[in-house]
UniProtKB/TrEMBL annotation:
It comes from the Eukaryota. Residues 32-445 form the Ammonium transporter AmtB-like domain. Coiled coil: none annotated. PROSITE patterns: AMMONIUM_TRANSP. It is a multi-pass membrane protein. This is Ammonium transporter. Belongs to the ammonia transporter channel (TC 1.A.11.2) family. Signal peptide: none annotated. NCBIfam families: amt. Its main location: membrane. InterPro entries: Ammonium/urea_transptr, Ammonium_transpt, Ammonium_transpt_CS, NH4_transpt_AmtB-like_dom, RhesusRHD. It holds the Pfam family Ammonium_transp.
Amino acid sequence: MNVSSHEEYDYLPIGLHWDEGSPQWNNKGDNAWQLIATTMVCLQSVPGLVILYGSMVKKKWAVNSAFMALYAFAMVLLCWVLWAHHMAFGKQMGPLVGQPHVALAQVFLIGPSGNGYIPMADYVFYQFGFAAITVILLAGSLLGRMNFYAWMMFVPLWLTFSYTIGAFTIWGNGFLDKYIIDYAGGFVIHLSSGVAGFTAAYWVGPRHSRDRQHFPPNNIIHMLGGAGFLWLGWTGFNGGSPFSAGQITALAIINTHLCTATSLLVWLSLDMIVYKRSSVIGAVQGMITGLVCITPGAGLVEPWGALVMGVISGSIPWYTMMVLHRRSAFFQSVDDTLGVFHTHAVAGLLGGVLSSVLAKPNLLRMMYGPKHYAPGLFYSFFEGGNFIMSLKQVGYQIVGAGFITAWNAIVTSLICILISRFVNLRMDEEDLEIGDDAVHGEEAYALWGDGETLARTRRLRLPPRLPSIFRRLV
């Protein structure tokens, strides 16, 4: 993400070029691709995760889950342009953060970006898409019980005091910028969202006991549609990170889809071998872990490396989610609704470490320029090179992961404790029993009449031993 330029830009004032709308420094091809990539990243959140979350939960939580994602997308955009962008990528205020500043001035937005032959507006909006999806991914741990008013406060606070710190330290000239390989956000986005989501889930508390025991998707076909937006949108997620339509972009895109397909098939195969069934939800989880794992090294590894990462991302997170999670008292004590810790924190950590093992030397130079990061440990060992420096790079990756983990766990805890002083983090038991109708006064599906709610059914208490088929009908 932190691209080093290979050439000196020949900047000319806009007014001195015959085409005022496209000055000499602006490459129209790169600009067009970046706008497309940014749109694809945003589509991952809206409608991608809106549909995925709204479909992957019980019917009674469909509206609330989708609306948490939609609200976060809007709130993050306002915070991003008013102060957060400069905190993540602006003038250094310290080793952890940049100086808060408004990113709305015309002269700033239509001026050249330092990350390619594109306007700064492209860079600001692309990075917003990353920030927004990070917060929305975090929400996956909290579905089905978080007080919406607490969520409204949580989003701007977490963006400001957690996300911007991770982005600045690794991408924005912070103290880890020169040491950590993170092509498109394995640490900044996925490890942080997985750790923060798990931490927030601890403070918010669990879902209603019946929801935790039985939480089927309300619409698997729509769930697959949301997953499709997420998968194909990752073309822009990883393809936009070089900020140009070049060779690294093309390689990153094919690697992204190779790793994802491999991971999905490995997860599906393990489900079929161990549980004797082909789970659609499992396939979606395998798809997500593949997307996450390839992200920190998408443009830096060869296609065979992407396949290796796909095998690992489809198996290790499967084990932590499907086996370790069920056996561990630690994991059982925290209600992570969609398993975001496994699909994002575990897969993001794997991708970050594997990137330092499999990053090819010439691809690192093409992306970041010379004298930046040590080549992958594999190439130093088998093709000659500075093995010690490559081993150090692996160590740097682990240290970076440790910092992101610790920062997000501590800051997320402090934010949750602060919010709890003003509003309850978790809905009360009566509202948890009802769901969307209690929280928003709206329901996802019209199942009778023209969608009117029957007052007598809103607070109906079902006998605990009622047959499950009748429960679903009710």
